[in-house]
Structure formats: structure tokens, C-alpha cells
């Protein structure tokens, strides 16, 4: 077993994973701290507080790792980015759906971070993060099922016998008779709808409270893009006579007082858009119908451009912190 005396420096992927998680967890603490202060449902309040405690524990551990490496801590998000006196922006029901989707994002991120970690303390950290988040996921899902607010993915019937694919038209989609969606395709479409709906709700809510017209317009544009994507995905499922997930837009209150800084809200949306590109790419990689493949390609291009515009706003506002980056050797040489 590796002797962790910290003589072995953190690798670039290890540093980047810690830095990214620090940014996301400090943002999450701000978001959930306001949310928990507006809830009256004891079950919702308990699960939100538990999520906050997990994020705070992660932040403390990451600070220890980065200090040991003498790597500067990112600023991330602080109490300056949250207004605890602002009225509720979301219903308690939506907060559960939000936390459910964000927990899925967290599980995926921790798995990727574990897979790119070499040092034993980093591996142990992400294994622990996965354990904690898996427990959180189970608790959220249990509450949602108990309250009857979870939208289950579609069911498919059991075939009479196993079968193999023996015709090339299994891959068709643009012309001729389309084959029914397979279970993998159904799952990716359904869960991408759920994630996209949550982002659309956030953008709708953030557009109500943002102090900047530029950022407000950006959120409105994003909400329209999300709603269009949801309509496309819904139409694919509806064509197969399959159910679609619930729309949560009605769970936004009519408040115009912002609980969060424009910096936090914009960072949150840009981060979610980047994650969406990854999910679409994963879905695209297992598509076996050409029309779905092309849809994902087109939608990825659209949200990729949207993400770039959001990143440019962050840069122009001076809000985008630079992640761990390799040295510019030419620039260093020119300083002599």
C-alpha cells in the first residue's frame, strides 16, 4: 500500500477534481441554506440539512488537501452570495426534485473523480463521498416515493422469448417504419427530460430575481432552449405511447427578491449546461436509431453555444476563477 506522507504531489486530475468539487459544494451550501430556511415540512428540512452537512464536510476536507499541497484555495461562494432574508423562490416539493437531480450529478462526478485518482487518500475520499451520496440518494427517493411525487420511468413488457437483431433497419429512423425505442434509449430520454426540466425551472426562477438585464435575458433564453428540448424528448416518448416526466414550472413562487447573487446563479446554470452536454453525449453513444443520434448531435451543439455565452458573461464580470492549469513555459521564459 502507498505510504501517504504527501511526498507524492497531487496529479493534475486530482487537483482539478478537488478544485471543482470545492466550487460546487460551496455553491450548494449557499443554495440549500436559503432553501432550508424557507421550508416548513420536517422531512424536507431534515434532508436539506443533511445535504448541507455533507457539503460542509467535503469543503473542510478539500481545504485540508489543498493546504497540504500549498495550493491556493479558490474563493468559491460565501455568505455574501446568499440572502437568507429573501422569501421562498421554490416550493418544498420542487426542492426535493432539485436535490434528487443534483445528487445524481454528484454520484457521477464522484465516480469520475475516483477513476482519475491515484493517491490513496484521494481514492478513499471519493469512496467516502460516494457512500454518503448514495445514502442521501436513497433517503431522497424514499421521501419522494412516500409523498407520491416521484415520476417513475416507463415500464416495458417482458418478451415471450429472447431475440437477436437480424436486419439493418433496426438502425433506421428518418425514413420508413421506425422500430420501437429500446430500454436504454427510453431511460436516457426520460432522465434527460427530468434533468432538463429542473434546469428550466431554475432559469425561470433566476430570471425573476436577477439584478442584471444581461443575465436575466440569458436565463430567459436558456429556459426557452430547455423547454424546446423537453418538447422534443416528450414527443419522442409520446409517439411510442410512453409516459413523460412531470413539469415543475408551477413550483416557482412569484417572488422577485433574489436569495442568491447573480454570480452564484449564473455559475450554477453554466455548470449544469456543461453537465448536460456530457449526458447528451452519453445518450448519443448508445443510440441505435439514426434519428435519435442526429437529434442529440443538434441539441448538443445548441446548448454548447449557450454554455459558451454564459462563460463569456462570467469572464466579463470577473467572476470566473481559473481552475488548476499547467504552467505557460513560454510566458515564464519571457519574464527573464
Automatic annotation (TrEMBL):
The chain crosses the membrane at residues 265-287. The keyword Transmembrane helix applies. Keywords: Membrane, Transmembrane, Transmembrane helix. InterPro entries: DUF3231 (IPR021617), Ferritin-like (IPR012347). This is DUF3231 family protein. It comes from Cytobacillus spartinae. The lineage of its organism: Bacteria, Bacillati, Bacillota, Bacilli, Bacillales.
Amino acid at each position: 500500500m502507498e505510504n501517504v506522507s504527501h511526498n507524492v504531489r497531487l496529479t493534475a486530475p486530482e487537483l482539478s477534481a478537488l478544485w471543482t468539487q470545492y466550487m460546487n459544494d460551496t455553491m450548494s451550501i449557499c443554495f440549500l441554506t436559503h432553501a432550508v430556511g424557507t421550508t416548513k415540512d420536517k422531512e424536507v428540512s431534515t434532508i436539506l440539512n443533511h445535504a448541507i452537512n455533507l457539503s460542509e464536510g467535503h469543503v473542510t476536507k478539500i481545504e485540508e488537501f489543498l493546504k497540504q499541497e500549498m495550493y491556493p484555495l479558490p474563493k468559491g461562494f460565501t455568505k455574501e452570495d446568499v440572502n437568507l432574508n429573501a422569501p421562498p423562490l421554490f416550493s418544498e416539493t420542487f426542492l426535493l426534485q432539485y436535490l434528487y437531480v443534483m445528487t445524481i450529478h454528484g454520484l457521477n462526478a464522484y465516480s469520475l473523480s475516483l477513476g482519475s485518482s491515484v493517491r490513496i487518500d484521494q481514492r478513499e475520499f471519493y469512496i467516502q463521498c460516494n457512500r454518503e451520496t448514495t445514502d442521501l440518494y436513497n433517503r431522497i427517493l424514499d421521501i419522494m416515493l412516500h409523498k407520491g411525487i416521484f415520476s417513475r420511468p416507463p415500464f416495458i413488457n417482458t418478451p415471450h422469448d429472447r431475440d437477436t437483431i437480424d436486419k439493418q433497419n433496426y438502425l433506421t429512423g428518418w425514413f420508413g417504419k421506425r422500430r420501437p425505442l429500446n430500454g436504454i434509449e427510453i431511460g436516457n430520454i426520460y432522465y434527460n427530460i427530468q434533468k432538463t426540466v429542473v434546469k428550466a425551472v431554475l432559469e425561470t426562477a433566476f430570471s425573476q430575481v436577477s439584478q442584471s438585464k444581461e443575465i436575466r435575458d440569458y436565463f430567459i433564453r436558456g429556459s426557452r432552449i430547455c423547454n424546446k428540448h423537453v418538447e422534443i424528448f416528450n414527443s419522442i416518448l409520446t409517439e411510442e405511447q410512453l409516459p413523460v416526466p412531470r413539469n415543475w414550472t408551477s413550483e416557482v413562487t412569484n417572488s422577485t427578491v433574489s436569495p442568491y447573487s447573480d454570480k452564484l446563479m449564473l455559475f450554477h446554470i453554466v455548470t449544469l449546461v456543461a453537465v448536460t452536454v456530457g449526458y447528451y453525449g452519453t445518450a448519443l453513444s448508445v443510440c441505435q436509431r439514426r434519428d435519435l443520434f442526429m437529434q442529440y448531435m443538434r441539441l448538443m451543439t445548441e446548448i454548447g453555444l449557450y454554455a459558451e455565452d454564459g462563460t463569456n458573461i462570467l469572464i466579463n464580470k470577473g467572476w470566473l476563477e481559473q481552475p488548476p492549469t499547467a504552467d505557460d513555459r513560454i510566458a515564464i521564459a519571457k519574464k527573464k
